[in-house]
Specification:
This protein is an alpha/beta fold. The chain has a single domain, classed as 3-Layer(aba) Sandwich (Collagenase (Catalytic Domain)). It contains ten helices and six strands, in the order H-H-E-H-H-E-E-E-E-E-H-H-H-H-H-H. A four-stranded mixed sheet has the order 1-2-6-5. Strands 3-4 form a two-stranded antiparallel sheet. The N terminus is likely disordered. InterPro entries: LP_HExxH_w_TonB.
Length: 293
């Protein structure tokens, strides 16, 4: 600590000696964050303002800024032609349906106010990828947007698009975190699968996880993610898709645990937020179907 303090003093003196009051620092307006990152607003910026910022006080950053992201990851910017289709789909599938079920006041209160958009996936050292993150309920980072294709876009293939479902799975997952961080789910939730959570979830499969009572292998990581994975899968798969998943489970114990969790999710939405989960589920899946079929 003593050596560190000496170093800081010497460094400070060196800076003071080398930088005089009258020195010309150049045009600081060209430095990003000090005026050098401005641009003329275009069609995308107008759309974001009119569709998200004015009605919901939400902003979306699509211009590249590595400072918003992890410095140890190799990431790519989103393609500009993806921005409006992505955000428009998010509004239709997620925002509009919550507004219809819970009201605009609810959504304005709990919706993250800042979206950061990234073109590529964020790869982790264990071989997994991060599709999205939510920070403090205020900011969501969405990855893999350059793979996004809906009906009418070049490269779109009709059907149950994996990339589209993954994006909405991520959004519903992260919003589920925001909800339980404001009002916690019942403590009884943690007892359903106590002892079965594991940090090695990525070494398993969805099939083996479901046999143990988890809707996805990632749900095995901890109770919080178990809870929001249930919310996300039930919403994005819809009633039919969700029941199809459960119909393949042969272990009665695993199936029973999933049914307990399903009941608890539905009750949580009704008792805490006054939301009819079945109606929200139907609306969400119908909106996804309109994009991919």
């Amino acid at each position: 600590m003593f050596k560190h303090k000496i170093y800081l003093i010497i460094l400070t003196l060196a800076i003071l000696a080398s930088c005089k009051k009258e020195d010309d620092l150049g045009d600081v307006s060209q430095i990003p964050g000090l005026g050098g990152d401005t641009w003329a607003g275009g069609t995308i910026d107008t759309w974001i303002r009119d569709t998200l910022t004015v009605p919901f006080n939400v902003s979306a950053k699509y211009k590249w800024d590595q400072g918003e992201l992890e410095f140890d990851k190799t990431l790519t910017p989103p393609k500009e032609e993806k921005i409006i289709p992505v955000l428009s789909s998010i509004k239709k599938v997620w925002i509009d349906n919550y507004v219809k079920e819970a009201g605009k006041t609810f959504m304005m209160k709990y919706i993250p106010k800042y979206f950061v958009l990234v073109g590529s996936a964020s790869w982790n050292t264990d071989g997994t990828i991060t599709l999205g993150t939510a920070e403090g309920g205020r900011r969501i980072i969405l990855y893999v947007l350059n793979d996004f294709r809906v009906k009418g876009m070049t490269g779109f293939v009709p059907g149950d698009s994996v990339n589209i479902k993954e994006m909405f799975h991520t959004i519903e997952h992260e919003f589920g975190h925001i909800l339980h961080q404001n009002v916690m789910y019942p403590e009884a939730w943690k007892r359903i699968s106590v002892g079965d959570y594991t940090s090695s979830w990525n070494l398993t499969t969805d099939s083996s996880a479901r046999a143990k009572g988890f809707i996805t292998m990632y749900a095995q990581s901890n109770p919080d993610d178990d809870f929001v994975e249930m919310i996300s899968m039930m919403l994005t798969e819809g009633k039919g898709g969700y029941e199809a998943i459960l119909s393949d489970i042969t272990n009665p114990t695993g199936l029973s645990k999933l049914r307990q969790k399903e009941t608890m999710v539905v009750s949580y939405f009704k008792d805490v937020w006054g939301i009819n989960f079945a109606s929200l589920q139907a609306r969400t899946r119908n909106s996804i179907d309109q994009l991919i079929k």
